[in-house]
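Anyone? Bumping this.
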Amino acid sequence: MQRPDAPAAATHHLIAYGRDRVREDALVAITEGRAADIDLPGAPLAAVPADRRAPVRLHALAHPFTLPPAATDMRHADQQLDFLAGHLRRLCGSFWKPGLAFFDAYFDAIRAQITRDQDLLAARCSDIAGLIEPAHWAFCAPMPFPRARIRPAAPGPLSADDFIPADLAFHTSSGLLALWVDSGNSVLPAQRRARERLSEAGVRCRGLPASALRSEGRQLLALLGPDFSDFTSTCPLPRSPFAPRPLPRPAAA
Amino acid sequence: MKKAESKNIKLLSQDTLLGNGNVGEGVSLQLTNDGRRILWLAHESAPTNFTGVDVSDPRNPKVVVQTQLPHNTVRSNSLDVVGNTMAVAYQTQTWGQEPAGIELFDITKPEEPRSIGFYDCSSPHSRGCHQVWFVEEGWLTAAAPTKDFQPKESWDDQPFLMLDISNPSKPEETCFWWYPGTRVGDDEPAPPRHPRFSQGWRCHNTNVYPERPDRAYIGYIDGGVMILDIADKSAPKLVSHWNPHPPANGFTHTVLPLFDRNLIVASDECVYDLGEDWPKRVWVLDAQVEDNLVPISTLPMPPVEEFAPRGGRFGAHNVHENRPGPSFRSDQIVIGTYFNGGVRVHDIADPYEPKEIAHYVPEAPEGSPAGSIQFNDAYVDENGLIYAVDRWAGGLYVLEMDI
């Protein structure tokens, strides 16, 4: 049954992530209009409207957690952030050390920035003090999709073969960003052609030197650009991905 | 005659090397001072020692030099190049012969290789050096004994050796290790022999990467995969040992660490014709815990029923080793030689489920007694061109991947 808010391949960028393969059942759900906007819990596959200008932040997804958050003490934002970082690290799989290093560096950088700007951030949410903690601003950072497979919005049938791998994907105010951590691998002709296809579709493609993952946190955010280094200023109010969510709207009968 | 078979690989050129198309396990690329690309090839057996081929135009390779061995009971088999220096391994047919060791050449002028040093490891108990690994100025490692090494079992005669060659005219031993129990005088018992295909507990490849200068990744023939801690050169320590033989049929050849992935790719060499020692596999090992390697998959190969009867050997041998220099590097793509199975390319992005994505099996080279291609070794350059070599007669094949 079609949902009125279902994403479509023609109008949404699709980002499969955290797995070596794109799940066919998720593609069928999208093709049949049964998937909910902006993400598909359990897939994991994010659908981002092609005309979206706002970044997809850490708090924007119903993350398909493999461990139930309820099993952990999650009263404070720091604990929630640790839980989320652990979840994203697990999506790197067992055999991708640079991915694990990225998430360590990325979350270190986020924490360092929140600590540095703590007074300013506390002032910005003073009206609702008690409901949120300054550390909640961390969830405003752009969401890194590890082991991403990107299918830019385009009309036509949906096939797993159309998804182009990237080490990491983001959606920022400037659109889709595909990132490769430089691990000294030679670039294959097919990879070169795939990256060209991404570029032609408007996806920014860039490499990240492995040395950036060894540097102190803030350098990484600065290297990634203003969407990252200024992630709190562009977010009106923080929220947690672990906050209660509205009940899903039932599909039309 | 069976036609060439290919998938996502095409042949750019072939060169039978002035009629000496029997190439061993040494393939290395030199970028010369005058801008040429010279591929150096060690030969499988006498009379040819090594050949230099100008592959600047990969569609039109040209032999620029070919040298001869002093007699027919020595083979060069393995070589490696760094800058304008080349190291060549010499292994004799039987124990006690000469020359047995490693010769160093200045190849600044490729047409005129000039000997600049020799490490002599000949002795009544030595066949010399089977393999050299030379990827940085100043040092090399080898499957070779010292002059005073006496194994308990004659085939255990090529331990792990590291040489300081900063002064090439006077190579110096800096690190030497043998599996405990294999040397006369060891308290430990000699390790058990393989029940069917005993080939010795000794080194084949002895890879040390600049990324991990404190580790040696060793294929130890019937001893399996070994990782040595060589941080202290005077006291190397075995830190990991994984041995599938038996039930596997011996001859661990190459141990390729994929550092960013906590994986190891290890090949076993097929050494018998017509599938007698089948299966010879390429293993993918989970190396998250260095001292507890766990096999998680093997690279798929075509059916033995189809390939073994083609003649010669069929099964795994060398894999491209991600060495520094003008070399292809990948922790997802494994390029290997499989004798009459040709060159095969596997994608191990999902290491639990490797996929073959390309292969090339040429028709049998003219004059080959095997009656089939016998791809022995392959080197892949930084542009993804594969230089594959036949063991008997076909010489050099330059291949281009489209993957």
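Late reply, but here is one note on the structure posted above: Chain B has one domain: 5-401.
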